[in-house]
Amino acid sequence: MRFSKCSEQAVIHLRSHRLALCGDHFTERFRDVVKKAIKSYRQLTKDDKVLVAVSGGKDSLALWDVLLDLGYDAEGLYIDLGIKKESYSDISREKAEAFARNRGAGLIISDIRKEYGMSLHAAARKNPRTLCSVCGIIKRHEMSRVALEGGYDVLATGHNLDDEAGVLLGNLLRWNLELLRRQAPRLEAWHPKLKPKVKPLCLLTERETATYAILRGIDYVYEMECPFSLNSPSIVMKEALNRIEERSPGTKLYFFKKFQRHRNLFASREEEKQKEEGAELVECGICGFPSSSDRCAFCRIMRGKRKN
Ligand code: SF4
Ligand SMILES: [Zn+2]
Ligand SMILES: [Zn+2]
After folding, report:
1. Is residue 306 part of a domain?
2. Is residue 252 in a domain?
3. CATH number at residue 237
4. Which of 59, 98, 131, 192 has the most other CB atoms within 10 Å of its CB?
5. What is the per-residue pLDDT for 278?
6. In a domain? residue 111
7. What is the four-CA torsion angle of 224, 227, 233, 236, rounded to 10 degrees?
8. What are the pLDDT digits (tens) for 74-119?
């Protein structure tokens, strides 16, 4: 049985909540769920200067939109990786810039070809790691650098429930304790140069963020994801969870929320280990960020060729 809140035409049926909602009620609920995540996981305060990592896709732009509407001081960061395939970087950058213009919000662009003299592809060609792994190192470094240089208090990313539940399943199947411990809706900074990271969309599914983005008239790169996302291992986990969700609505949310309640079970020993490892950390001789050797993974890949 489905419950409706009003007599308006429903735009979405949320099977896991047995709810059918019109556009206005859905938008209101979406904001309420973001507020709930922010409050329950102590992600943000109204005094925080927030840097939102935007990719031009539905999740990150929906996040930025809702944070602005909720009155947060939120600026965007777009990292241009120079992905030429299907003009992905150019198109997604335009979407991020158009959103910022329309909302009158500040957007910082980190163009790695201009900053470091090479695109993601050029960097990955010189490295034995997979393209997505190199991409992750570059994005993490640029987010940390811009957050530090810009005096931001916290970094926000648009990871949704499907992303988080998929990663969680993958980490559990491999019993990757270190990653399990760190899979938090708010990850505290573990070094003075780093900022806390939050995921305010963690209780909302991909379908919900897409619906929100469409209802709000957000122009995002809906016709495609990053052309390399099909190689990402989390896709298989997401597909498996979608099949379970189909048979048993609400499983994804239950899986994620219960894990967060019990995450401490994985924490204590790993935290001790991290403290021991932390004692061995030094600062990278080129960028100054914490590293296990005198050159961090990012500077080893990009050779520290930052131009300005
Ligand atoms: S799918 Fe694309 S954006 Fe995501 S990590 Fe891989 S290369 Fe980077
Ligand atoms: Zn309604
Ligand atoms: Zn470095």
Report:
1. no
2. yes
3. 3.40.50.620
4. 59
5. 53
6. yes
7. 40
8. 999 999 999 988 889 999 999 999 999 999 999 999 999 999 999 9
Strand partners, 290: 283
Ligand 2: centre distance to CA 248 (Å): 26
Q: How far is the CA of 216 from the centre of ligand 2 (A)?
A: 15
Can you tell me the distance from the alpha carbon of 278 to that of 264, in angstroms, rounded to the nearest whole number?
19
Distance linking the first and last C-alpha atoms of the chain:
60
Give the number of domains in the chain.
1
Task: Give the span between the Cα atoms of 208 and 16, in whole angstroms.
Answer: 12
CA dist., res. 122 & res. 133, Å (int): 14
- Closest protein CA for atom 5 of ligand 1: 132
CA-wise closest residue to 255 among 157, 169, 159: 169
Distance 54 CA to ligand 1 centre (A): 13
Q: Kindly state if the Cβ of 226 falls inside 6 Å of ligand 1.
A: yes
For residue 27, give the ligand nearest its CA.
2
Cβ atoms < 10 Å from Cβ of 39: 10
Whether the predicted pLDDT of 226 surpasses 70: yes
Backbone angles phi, psi at 24, to 5 degrees: -65, -45
Model confidence, pTM: 0.93
pLDDT at res. 35: 98
E strand or H helix at 125, and its extent?
A: helix 120-125
